[in-house]
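README: folding subset

This subset contains proteins for which both the sequence and a predicted structure token string are available. Records are stored as plain text. Below is the entry for ATPase (547 residues), shown exactly as it appears on disk.
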Amino acid sequence: MTEMPGGDAFATPAARLRDPIGMVIEIAGSRGQIVFDPERLAALGGHDDPIIAAAGSVGSQVKLRVGGIWLVANVRSLKLTDDGERITALVDFLGEGDETPETGVLARFRRGVTRYPMPGCHVYPLATADLREIYATEDRAHIEIGTVHPTRDVRAALYVDALLGKHFALLGSTGTGKSTSAALILHRICDLAPQGHILMIDPHGEYAAAFTANGAIFDVSNLQMPYWLMNFAEHCEVFLTATGSSRQMDADILAKCLLLARGKSRLGQEIAKLTVDAPIPYLLGDLIAFIQLEMGKLDRAGDTAPYMRLKTKIEEIKADPRYGFMFSGLLVADTMAGFIERIFRLPGGGKPISIIDVSGVPSEITAVVVAMLSRMVFDFAIWSRNEPQRPILLVCEEAHRYIPNERNADASSVGRILSRIAKEGRKYGVSLGLITQRPSDLAEGVLSQCGTIIAMRLNNDRDQAFVRAAMPEGARGFLDSIPALRNRECIISGEGVAIPIRVAFDDLEEAKRPASDDPLFSSLWTETGDEDAIIARTIKRWRAQGR
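--- output ---
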């Protein structure tokens, strides 16, 4: 191997920094192979700059001079050569920048590579000053969420327009600080855009506590979601109980009677070509009456079973108080404009986020409620295309429950609409944020539609492989460190950042944190007393199915 210049062991730190630490021995597309000098790396190990001190380690960055530019690469893996005197490394090329003549520091960094190095090109350590330039946000709208590892003061920022314009996913195993990190990102977005429009589906009731000051909180007590906003597919999910060929027969009956019920209202009569999906108010009593009327037209008593199944189910839901937030007789007025205004924060009035707590919704229709809300976001965006644009961010916690893969698929309408938003939403100004601890349970292709992936620690091998397949090539070196991430640390790659980075999230004030702390068994199991009253109050709420 060619000797590297500047091997004086007594050189000053500044002089050592100008010395190469290795050279390129192989180039192949977006990757390359370099060989490090262990003595040079050891000499830099005690440097005051933590970025320089970490030079050559897995996940660190190095720079190569090609012509008049600096090429930045990320170290993916290390291996000792057979003679034990050198270390070979696989690197991924991330981007390039100009050199500042006075300081030699990177400037005007941009993603992508226009010119590749030749074998024999020298490799140099990256410094904190270079990182500041790489992560400089210039004049782009951004939010700061933490510090770049392993620095103490280089701020990590997300480009908001790129983050939201091409969807994002936040992934991490339970207990890694995922909920707090999601709250941090959403708080920063709300601070940047107090007149924004954010809708968050909260399946566990965690986030209400975090957004009391700058959000509108909705649950079964105040959601007031009119049943007639459902489209036909959602009606089928709620009202049909049959399976197989009988289900199609029931669906045909429901379609005919639902269209008659919608057409009976004044609004329905004003529309020349009314469809069964149109959000026109109708009375549940009218729907039941039309089913009864159609059943009365039959000659043979044996054919009445589908009608009776439908009628019984609708009456059962109408009478069940758990469904009152949606199927109440008070929700028959045309409140669609008011509902959209409240839920989509139009205008936001300084509270740009709606937290939809669906933890109190009966489990049988939770998926339908989420489907309705998601579809309304998408439909509103489609039908308002000729209006002044009002982009909406839809954040879905526990996303794997609603967009399951083929192995867990139940062909529900919520999976179809969220998959459609993932594929087409950005054309209409709808952004999707997915939060999940089981990315491998998500529908195939949905994760790859997310332009920015924020990966916290993932303990499951299958989840890690799934994320690895969805992330861009240049982030592979970072991905290997996912199992070793600490709580509230993450790897971010994609459109929302200049290059893939490892980030330590900022601390979030107590009042802005979600109610997602784990119970402290060692402490709580020392407490005793008042158990009778606890049980009595719990049973009362349990029986009333109230919260």
